[in-house]
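If you are new to this repository, start here. Below is one unmodified record pulled from the training split, so you can see the exact layout before writing a loader.
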Amino acid sequence: MRYDRTLSCQLATAFVVACTALSANPAFAQTAIDIQVSSTSTGLVVRLEPAGATVSTTPPTVNGNTVAFEVLNAQLRSGTPFRRDNPGAGIASIVVSSIDATRLRVEITGTTTAPTVDVSQQNQAIVLNVPTSLAEEDEEEVVAVGNRRPTPRSQTPAAVEVKTEAELQRERPLARSIVDNLQTVPGITVNRLGLLTGSLNIRGLTGERIGLLVDGERLPNRQFGPNFSTIDPFRVERIEVLKGPASSIYGADAFGGVVNVITTTPRPDRPFGVRTQVFGGGAAELTTNLEIQAPNIIVGGSYSTAGDARDGKGNLIPLGTSYQSTSGYLSGRIDLSRSARLELRLDRTSQYDVDLAGFATPPESPFQITRAQNAYQNRDRYSLAYINEGVPGGTNFAVRGYYQRFEDQTDLSNLLTIPGRTISRGPFLPPIVVPTLQIPGASSSRGLTETFGFSAQANSAIGNAILTYGYDFSRDSGSSFDLLNNQRGVLGTRTFNGVFVQSAYTVIPNLTLAAGLRFDAFNSDADNSQSRNDSAVTFNVGSIYRFTDALALRANFAQGFRPPTLQLLFGSNADGSFFAPTRGAIVANPDLNPERANNFDIGFEYQTRDVSARLGYFYNNISDFLGFNPIVPRQTTAGFATLETANKDVILQGVELAASYQFTRGWFLDGNLTYGSGRDTSGARLSQLEVFPLTALVRLRYDDGRFSSFLQSRIYGGQGTVLLANNVEGEGSPAATVFDFQIGYRATRSTELTLTIENLFNADYVFPTVNIPAPGIRVLAGIRANF
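And here is the target side for that same chain:
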């Protein structure tokens, strides 16, 4: 039944009768109540769970933006009032407090209007369903990644995608790392080095061109971009993605886009609880997680492992896919006042024996990598933040400081085959037979990256405008050590300093303008007396115009700037070379120019209660794109090099479409499609990693609160002819269609059982943008529990 602004007299009478009957029975008095708030695909679910007895409620009343009612013959088990602020879009707070010894008062307050509340009874529990989607009038989704502050999506001109907590939970068995959560987002695919290791490809830009933030803190861009695999998917509450250049907001790391990951956050109103997940199945995969939550503190850990998987034909995937991973984390909060607090975070992630299938070489190549593995990867993160939320309509600010340490060891084995031949010596002498010669080789290197960072940011309201401004500083130091030759490579240090300002202004109710400006200064130094200084000013400007409440047009122009990385400039070895997966040995170039991007986005967005749709077009003109050019082959420490780093000009463009339809209660149909194209203006082929294939997703899902299920189809188009390893032209990843299926059953209010089948029909395919065979059918059984 639905409680909106109109209350039923018959219902009120029924409640009065029920309450009278219950009040006469003392066995029902002062029943202890537990409260749980969770997110679903359509909103919030608030459960009032009594301990062994039935409770009742009074009819609700509406006062301003608040819907309120009483729970009779009940008290809070914790003994203290329950409060949850900003639990979802359009909901300001949920408060449960004691009126007297036998009554509780429940208040749900909307941000602009009184929310709609659906009340039902499941067994003894009272369940409140509170829709929070954009379909609800005057309620909007809030995103932070678009301009560094929480902003209604209707005022964010940039192309932004969001993975909510409900979506992440639903996809959890399919996600070995957070890149798996994002591979079904329009405009995104994954460039994989292994099942656990990979980088995002956003609209044709990948690796170190993609910025990664965790709880507002920058993760360093290492040799091939930020390491997404070191973030435990279990603890992630939300992921926001800004697609396209965002250097004017976040600096050089966000040349092609930025990913903002929000982990479980300590709150004073968070009740004590334990949650856990266990998944296991095919290819000896096992994942276990445990998290303990209490007011102002969260502590947790996870362990996962997998063996070697087989492709759709039953063959072992070359170089293997096994891995082991452990993580532990602690988050705490200290409230200094009603508006000010400290937040502390400590993380430790360790991975062992991670096979790197992405290093595999073509079978016809005389040079074969026979083993590639990260013997270990360790990431440590320490951070402290001071946050002052100020007063409504005033200025709020946050100051963050952090230190991160990343260390790994990569071991490679290879085999060089020199074909045999027969030498003829004329009709009278026997021929000379030269046998095939195979020369084994190996390398082992240890890498270390340390990052110090600091940021300060404030938000001020000025009339109808909001101004966001601040300062970013970070310093990355990286080096490698050749363990076999006992030789240290180049020690490189890169320092970033940036100041920024962003603003949004509501010109008229239907028109919002947004703009920003940033100045960055970069310094790169190597201990072999090489150095480099770069600076840039970048800007963005955009607008959103709403034709109706359901239909809007957005347009956005944004610039990107990225200086060459230390590795591209100076290499990682003493001779200025480095090794790149799928490309082989590369010679660095200290004379590279910074790359610059000018990107334009335009799109329509349509949203009603049951239907949402987005259609967008992007055009990205990149000058001095940092890539590779062929050279006269020569021997280097990293191997036999045929390429060196070089600048070129590239144009990337494409169309993105996404839609969702709720055609009946509990049933949803979702889908998206991305078509992208790119070209090097010189006429040369683009690298396979730079060619974004057509991608599409169709998903049918069902959720009635007890049973849940989805069937999805991932569709990949073929890449065509691209530049493969060692500068050889060939066919990129072929077209493929892959199905996944999952069914879930909530056995109790706190326990859910799941059965997941990845690659349902055992398709034989390779991962898009890399010619790595993907695993065949994989069956996982799992359990999720909250206590």
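Two things worth knowing about this chain: The radius of gyration is 28 Å. Residues 1-29, 133-139 have pLDDT under 50 and may be disordered.
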